[in-house]
Specification:
Layout: H1 2-6, H2 12-28, H3 39-56, H4 58-61, H5 79-86, H6 88-98, H7 103-114, H8 119-126, H9 130-150, H10 166-171, H11 173-178, H12 183-193, H13 197-209, E1 221-229, E2 235-244, H14 248-257, E3 271-273, E4 280-282, E5 290-294, E6 304-310, E7 318-327, E8 337-340, E9 347-355, E10 361-370, E11 375-381, E12 384-388, E13 391-401, E14 405-413
Parallel strand pairs: 1-10
Antiparallel strand pairs: 1-2, 2-7, 3-6, 4-7, 5-6, 8-9, 9-14, 10-13, 11-14, 12-13
Helix pairs in contact: 2-3, 7-9, 8-9
């Protein structure tokens, strides 16, 4: 793709910017690509349209450009762009990056690049000025480009596809601990934890914790969260819920017929959260699920809904949905945290909580890691402590009904 842009643009920095914008547009519209084995031609069309827009822009008029007509042939296109675009996992990474933007920037970029709305149309839909749309689009796209670079997702470096950044790696730790992971992801995470002692310790603790978990009957619902505060102040949350699938045969027939896509209005495995959309979602075997994300206008502006858009299969008798949230900065208490008690030296307090928010009875559990050096742990609420080597988990595990909450809380010395 870079070679195609260079035929029309000679400014190296502009070539880089345009190439990234072309690929972002391709990633965001990948679900609309339907012509097998013609992906190079499809990319060329996107490139031509983007370059036409560029030639009309003020940026083009004010720069030093050597222009030559774009070759209609795609025979000279290198192999690596095709390999990159075909990696659907890469598309998910770009979407995840966009979902970390402030809501206004995120919405403008999605409407612009995914739905192809004009700036005037977006302004009317969002009830904001065209100038605000342009500003949100500009700064949002700059942040996306910056995050692409920081996360080693620079276009044209196909070998980076197998290198995980921190959020991607930590999102895989529980799947790795359960041995419910694809071979590709397993290879990547094993390479990563060689260079990150904290990740290796978390994986080891999760391997010890997993066999000690208990579950409801197959015809009941089990929900549990594992919360892990990280050394840098970030948090990782593994949120897991089971579904009893009586009609799994009919659902699998539908998936087979429509290439893994769920019904457009089916809302399979729908859930809601006030967090940013999950970094990754997995099934029983560690297959990644594609999600629909939307923000209902009648709900809190930071509260989103999600349902499965595409998946491999339905498992019987129990289908698990395993969501991973990597969060930064200050977060809600239900993610779990521990903090120093100001009034007492060397005393810390830890708490995690959850309200399932459903009218049915659910077997709910919470697990929160404490530091390796924690001692003299005194439970305030919850069941107790599970020692898993480098980490100890305080936990609460019981059946809850309706809006009833569940809490794990303690104090400890360190």
């Amino acid at each position: 793709m870079t070679s195609i842009v260079r035929k029309s643009v000679r400014n190296p920095e502009m070539v880089k910017d345009l190439t990234q914008e072309i690929f972002i547009r391709a990633y965001l519209n990948y679900d609309y690509y339907t012509e097998d084995n013609r992906i190079q031609a499809w990319l060329a069309v996107i490139a031509r349209n983007k370059l036409k827009d560029y030639y009309k822009s003020e940026k083009y008029q004010n720069s030093y450009i050597a222009f030559s007509p774009l070759d209609e042939s795609t025979d000279t296109m290198p192999e690596s762009p095709e390999a990159i675009v075909m990696q659907k996992d890469f598309t998910d990474r770009i979407i995840a990056i966009i979902n970390t933007l402030p809501p206004k920037q995120r919405d403008v970029i999605m409407y612009s690049y995914f739905y192809d709305y004009s700036e005037n149309e977006i302004a009317k839909m969002q009830n904001i000025s065209v100038g605000t749309v342009k500003s949100a689009k500009h700064y949002g796209l700059e942040k996306v480009k910056k995050l692409i670079t920081e996360n080693n997702l620079i276009i044209g470096k196909a070998n980076n596809m197998n290198k995980l950044n921190k959020q991607e790696a930590y999102s895989l730790l529980y799947q790795y601990a359960k041995n419910q992971i694809s071979n590709e992801d397993k290879t990547a995470i094993e390479e990563y934890i060689k260079t990150d002692e904290e990740a290796a310790n978390i994986a080891s603790a999760l391997k010890q914790l997993y066999p000690k978990l208990t579950y409801a009957r197959d015809d009941e619902t089990t929900h549990y969260n594992i919360s892990i505060p990280l050394n840098n102040g970030d948090r990782i949350l593994f949120s897991n819920i089971s579904y009893h699938m009586e009609n799994y045969k009919e659902m699998n027939e539908y998936l087979e017929k429509y290439g893994g896509h769920t019904p457009p209005d089916g809302h399979w495995f729908e859930s809601g959260s006030s967090l940013n959309p999950a970094n990754a979602v997995f099934d029983n075997e560690g297959n990644r699920l594609e999600m629909n994300i939307w923000y209902p206008p009648e709900e809190n502006k930071n509260h989103h809904r999600a349902n499965v858009k595409r998946m491999k299969k339905i498992f019987y008798p129990v289908h698990w949905i395993c969501m991973v949230y990597y969060t930064t900065g200050k977060t809600a208490e239900f993610l779990g945290y521990y903090d120093k008690v100001k009034e007492a030296p060397n005393l810390y307090k830890a708490i995690t909580m959850n309200y399932f928010g459903n009218n049915t009875t659910v077997k709910s559990a919470l697990y929160l890691t404490l530091p390796e050096k924690s001692g003299n742990i005194r439970m305030i609420r919850g069941n107790g402590v599970i020692d898993c080597g480098k980490y100890k988990f305080i936990y609460a595990d019981r059946y809850v009904m309706g809006e009833e909450g569940i809490f794990a809380e303690c104090t400890f010395n360190m």
